[in-house]
Structures are given as structure tokens and as C-alpha cells.
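Re: the 147-residue chain
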Amino acid sequence: MLSEEAKKALEVSSSIKAGQVYRMRLTEEEGVKPKHKENDGRDKFFIVLGRDKAGTIGFVLINSSINKNLPQQIRDLHSPILASKYRFLKYDSFVDCHELKEIKEAKIRPENIVGELETEDLDIIKKTLVEDSPVVTTKQLKRFGLR
């Protein structure tokens, strides 16, 4: 017999797939710095791109704007995502395709899912990450089923 917690974890694990968009509090453990040092994280939208065999999800962040302090090469790797296509967005935003971040699937809850990307947008994001990112390794891409 599985405990309720184990059942919930199994349900979440089997339902997570590429293209899903979640909104939840992310911390420095997932590579998200808080805006203020007294905070432990930030509520962010993110897009699942893949998962590995050990229960880790590879994802990219959705940002409301592109940080103007970033080098041009990284700013160029932000793909627009339109609020007119996705009800979970309040305004047009940008997907940061320069870095593949990671989160343990055990941290993800079904109530955090807010939507799913259209295949066309997901393909653009994956292509940009795979072909143009200067920091994502071939090992990471293979690990999360992106290559």
C-alpha cells in the first residue's frame, strides 16, 4: 500500500510532460535569486522541457522582461511569448532560452500547473536552447531528452 504522499508524488510524476507551464516559488536551489535578500525565493513561471531518469526536471524560465544588464548574446536568447495566446500571462513575456535549469519533480504539485505551450512555441524554445545556448552542455541535452 502506498501512502497518500507517495500516491500524490506518483500522480505528479506521471503527469509531468514537456511544454507544461507551472507557476511556483523557486529558490536559489533551482537557480533563481530572490529580488530582496530577506526573501527565500520568487514566484516564477517555468516551462518543462524534459526529465531525467533520476526524477529531475529540466526547465526554462519565463520573464516579464529582458534584463538590460545582460550581455547582448544572452538577451538575444530570449524568445517572446504572447499573452494573447496564453491566458496565464498578464502581458507579453520572454522565455530565457540561454540556460536549462533543474528542479526535483518531487517539488512540483499538480495545482501549480497553469497551462501548456503550443507545439510551435515549444519547438522554437527547444531549438533556440539546443542550437544557440553557450552554456547548455551536450550532456544536459541528452540527459533531458533534448538531443
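The mean pLDDT is 92.
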